[in-house]
Amino acid sequence: MIVRWQAEACHALRSFHSSAQARAGLVSNIGKKPIVYPPTVSLSPNTTAVSVKGPLGETAVPLMPFMRISETAPNTLAVSVENPKERKQRAMWGLTRTLIQNAIVGMTEGFTTPVYLVGVGYRAALEPDPRGKGEGRSGQRLNMKLGFSHSVFVSVPDHIKIEVPQPTKIVLSCTDKHKLGLFAAQIRRWRPPEPYKGKGIIVGNERIRMKTVKKK
Question: Strand, coil or helix: what is 203?
Fold first, then answer.
């Protein structure tokens, strides 16, 4: 009985290894998708970066030495790597494709995310920065009441466009998705949402998992 069980185990192990070898030609499910961009965008790839120029500006996406960029059709870009069997190259494959796609969207439409102030007395206002314009500053700042004994002032960077349509709602816009997320996180850091009453600064479609208070 034991010998038969060992034989079946060895057969299953051999089957597993053979199937793994059959799947040796791994690809990135995200990286293999072609990038279709509008005619208003011009792409200029080289060995170190891809330059993206559109109606809202110009940016560049850095490339690793093993990345390959080719134009398979008009307004269609394909991303590949030298050796897809290497794990790092597969990871950078999908990441690079996503960064190029985000750059195209940023240069044509831009990115926008709302920020909500949830709490009694929480509110925000946009006002001129007393320091004025400077390196990395747009000349505006946020004045927020977040339940502290003092107001919270956040300087607005020059690459961020900001609107305050309501005292409890802030709308952030930027052509760079990464920089937009960093500034939203900077605002959120002053009052992260707490899980008992849901009070705090909520970014976008963020959902708070509420907890129940333990009663004695």
Answer: strand
Give CA–CA dist 110/171, Å, rounded.
13
Residue whose C-alpha is closest to residue 117's, from 142, 84, 90, 86: 142
- What distances in angstroms separate CA 158 from CA 94, 129, 136, one per listed residue? 30, 12, 5
DSSP string, 3-22: HHHHHHHHHHHHHHHHHHHH
Spatial separation of the C-alpha atoms in residues 184 and 110, rounded to whole Å: 15
Q: Name the packing angle between helices 87-108 and 177-188 (round to 10°).
A: 90
Start-end of H helices in 38-168: 87-108
Asked if 188 and 208 count as a contact pair (C-beta separation under 8 A), the reply is no
Residue 109's nearest CA partner among 159, 176, 63 is 176
pTM of the model: 0.80
Which among 185, 124, 184 is positioned nearest to 151, based on CA atoms?
124
pLDDT of 69-101, one tens digit each? 988 888 899 999 998 888 888 889 999 999 999
Query: Torsion over CA of 194, 199, 203 and 204, rounded to 10 degrees?
Result: 110
Spans of the chain, pLDDT less than 50: 1, 12-24
- Closest alpha carbon to 179 in 160, 194, 156: 160
DSSP-derived secondary structure letter, 146: -
Report the distance separating Cα 131 and Cα 142, nearest Å. 13
For residue 103, how far is the Cα from the chain centroid? 11
